[in-house]
Amino acid sequence: MTVPRRRFLALGAAGAAGVGLSLLGAGQTPAVAGTRGTAPTTRFAVGVRQYNWTRGSRKLTTYVYYPAKGAPGGSPVTNAPVADGVFPACEYTHGYGANPQGAAQSFIRPMAAAGFIVPAPYFANPDIGDAYNGNLPKDVSEILTKITALNTATGDPLAGHVDTAAGFGVSGHSMGGMTSHGLLTAWPDPRIAAAVPMSTVDMGNPGGAVHAKVLFIHGDKDPTCPISSARQAYRELASPKAFLTFRGANHGSYLSDTRAATTFVDWMRWGLYGDTAARDRLRGDASSGTTTWESAL
Questions:
Q1: Would you call 220 exposed, middle or buried from its count of C-beta atoms within 10 A (0-12, 13-18, 19+)?
Q2: Which of 239, 109, 120, 96 is nearest to 171 (CA)?
Q3: How far apart are CA 88 and CA 148, in angstroms?
Q4: Which of 112, 94, 120, 110 is nearest to 261 (CA)?
Q5: How does DSSP assign 78-91, residue by residue?
């Protein structure tokens, strides 16, 4: 039976606020960017810059995290020098009531430390209706366009460091997961090469405009975004795709589990760097006594 699409996420639902932070360790030597087919194997320091972009009247305040020069580990450093190399970009959208500096750091910081540029918009007064009417997906598409423009912007520190040929990644939790799935379906952006929608619902039918590697992550006891809707979305997509279920987890309790971040990062290593060694690690990354891994790679 087809599961009807509903507005599962209530306006009062917190996307990921208050969830503990799980960080990858520090202490390794900084690395240069990987070449096509491989990804950096040691971590970078993480820098962050704020951009106050717009789309029409909509504010797109975006924190761009990136590999930085310096010793890895520690908190992101504002306006730190950009590391040598060219890096693919993976956007992250936070959940309702959350922000890029909260639980989202469990994914943003490991991604930037692994060799990705991570634009993370902050929607200060989000309306969940904007996920359903296309405003949030369109906002993210505009942010990807702004990131592309940074690569040739005179005087911007990120100029020349964005791998625009790799395509883009999109990701997010709850409202952010819905936004990511919307970009694959109802409001397709063909620039997207990889996606990780977490705790999402089915936002529409895929139309063939986007050819992305898609990883769903979900708790099977989620009372806010039922896993049945995410499973429907998974069934509708063509391979390559995968579904990581955290058994017994609710809407956000798995966000602090390092298996989620490790699987997420290796998915993007494969999706944007083309790193097949990362692809081959995915089952091991995801597997445990409380998780279920399903894939069609």
A1: middle
A2: 120
A3: 11
A4: 110
A5: ETPPBPSS-B-EEE
Structure tokens at 104: 């989202």
249: three-class secondary structure by DSSP: coil
Q: Considering just the CA atoms, what is the radius of gyration of the chain in Å?
A: 17
- Write the single-letter amino acid at 201: V
Length of the chain: 297
Give the whole-angstrom CA distance, residue 249 versus residue 173. 14
Query: For tokens 């597997």, what's the residue?
Result: 287
Instruction: Pick the closest to residue 199 from 1, 65, 13 (CA basis).
Output: 13
User: Which residues sit opposite 46 in a β-bridge?
Assistant: 67
Residues of the chain with pLDDT under 50: 1-8, 10-32
Quote the pLDDT of residue 36: 75
Instruction: Spell out a b/e string for 106-145, using b for 16 or more CB atoms within 10 Å of the CB, else e.
Output: bbbbbbbbbbbbbbbbbbeebebebbbebbbbbbbbbbbe
What single-letter amino acid sits at 189? Answer: D
Between CA 57 and CA 64 the distance in angstroms is 21
Rounded Cα distance, 278 and 268, in Å: 9
Supply the pLDDT for residue 11. 33
Q: What is the pLDDT of residues 61-75, one digit of tens each?
A: 999 999 999 999 999
Q: What's this model's pTM, rounded to 2 decimal places?
A: 0.90
Question: With contact defined as beta carbons under 8 Å apart, do 170 and 203 qualify?
Answer: no
Q: What are 282's two structure tokens?
A: 């995915």
